[in-house]
Give the backbone structure.
Amino acid sequence: MPAAADNQPARLTEIPKCLPVVFVMAIIIGLYVIYLGWHCLPLLQLDKDAGMRDNEAKARGTWQLVSFLVLSTMLNICYVRSIVTDPGDIPDDKEWIYFGEGAEDQGIQGIHETKRTGERRHCKWCNKYKPDRCHHCRVCRNCILKMDHHCPWIYNCVGYKNHKFFFLLLFYTFLCTQLICWTMYESMKISVEEDNDFFHMFVLLFGETLCGFLTFLVTSFFGFHIWLMFKGMSTIEFCESKGKNKGYSSVYDRGVFGNMQEVLGKNMWLWLLPIEDYAGNGLTFDCEGSRLSNAFDVGRTIRSTIERRGRDGAGAGLLDDEHLGEPSAGLAIDGAENLVQRQGANNI
């Protein structure tokens, strides 16, 4: 059996794959310099005496500068964390190691995704069993926990441990581009109307055009990821459900608030901060199958308890007074069994 992941290259050492990151950094620096040097500083009028300054323009430039510095700082932090944070891989524990065909499989409770044969999924490159929502990335050459997609712009996969940072990166990029696009428009308009020197006008026009284009792209992409988060889906799961014509629904849907916790963390006060706050362990997830299984177990426990009390005579009064208990338990079990069977048929 070949050793798993022995020939993995160190990340960020393959120069051609780093070019998208360099390109993004160049855009960030370019817009940063243009917005500060050709928009905010002229509004602050630092080259004029205090008594000669336009106070309205100065106040506008002050709040725009402060807002931009805060948002751009958060953007840069999230971008760096999206790049350097390992998205998460399968542990080297014995229970996850794949020993080949015919080897004894102890199995792990809570696994929902299996092969058509009912066997656990495994990776032929990493020689490990795959948890739910885990996929192998051929660019990173590793299995990624809760993989959303591989993003060349961060030269990293978006997975369990850095999904929050990637989502916040889109969020703060959305806010920054919106701020630049709408506030710098006035400076560009004045520059064109007053027929300033060509370079000054060109820089503002270039920055506004570039930012407007990025605003459209980022807004669309961010809106798509908000929709995915609300549905409890990853990009890969969205593509798979689209290809199978099963509709845009996920077995991992926990409701809007629960789905937001899956991405942004358990503590909602930390949602907008680039701080690690993982929900779960990235190996097991609550899904329809596990919820139905829990409902079945609860119903079965209720039925067995009532039957035992009835046989012992200790619960005769309970059975007489709460005669709906046993039929309700039966209905709960029967309903759970039917739902499990339907879910199994749909998975097949």
Remarks:
- Confidence is low (pLDDT under 50) at residues 1-9, 292-296, 315-333, 342-348.
- The radius of gyration is 28 Å.
- Residues 182 and 208 are 9 Å apart (CA to CA).
